[in-house]
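Thread title: Can someone regenerate the structure for this chain?

I was given the following input by a collaborator and told the matching structure tokens would be attached. They weren't. Posting the sequence so someone can regenerate them.
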Amino acid sequence: MLLTIVPRSPIGTIADVVVQVPAPSPKAEDAANAVGSIQPMGSLFEQSLFLLGDCLILALMQRNQQNSDEMFTRHANLE
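Best answer:
Regenerated them for you:
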């Protein structure tokens, strides 16, 4: 699964699933339907991925009837 600004990228053509995140960065000037941002570099894209990730996790938690306490028992601390 590829989360990307530009689905027609080389990796996008070989990915099984492509999710276009319309959050531009200076390197993706040709992103279709992208919204504008004054944030530097890829900040908007990175923040969008965090939100999308949280939404996916919450949906999976609901589907699997899990709560935060149960999830925390499997949380890895990489410090």
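Residues 2-72 form a domain with the Rossmann fold fold (CATH 3.40.50.10490).
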